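dumping this here before i forget
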Amino acid sequence: MEDFLKNVTILHHPLIAHKITHLCDINTPTKEFREIVSELSMLMGYEAYRDLNTKLIEIQAPLSKFMSPVIDEKIAIVPILRAGLGMVDGLTALFPNAQIGHIGLYRDEETLEPCEYYCKLPLDCVDGQCIVVDPALATGGSAAAAVQMIKNRGFKNIKLMCLIAAPEGIKKVVSQHPDIKIYVAHYADAPLNEKGYILTAFGDAGDRIFGTK
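structure:
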């Protein structure tokens, strides 16, 4: 394995591969695209939530009382606007008590560098887990900037979840934030085009989720 992938979990599963194929198909309509993004996010959530802290509580079951585990950690889900919004429902389906933050970044079309315009985080989750979500990790600029914005506000346990990631994007994030874990549904080992999009991916995820062009 390449050294820059050591903190990256790539989810190899037939169901995930099948859904990624339909996401990348230009003939997949908006409604179906949106549903698949949510489904993939929920499937990925099982892995990303694997290390949640738990505690034992006593419950009364139909036949007896016994001690059983419940989640004992706060979760913040932070989508990078706007495409990241499509991944929120899948994760909250698994953990409805998660709190939602929002980070607004746009990419300068000439420099391809991210520009911040909004950041609102649930600061009472600062000691819990923060999962940053964005469908594509292409150049990595927006993701790296978002993680830094979150760190600047005191969060330490940060994860990044993307549906498709290119080597350039992973390297960018890892070089700036070697302490975070990255979860990827599909590793696209392909070049980026002149606009910084992954050639073997789904194009502009925000446009396809929201039906805009």
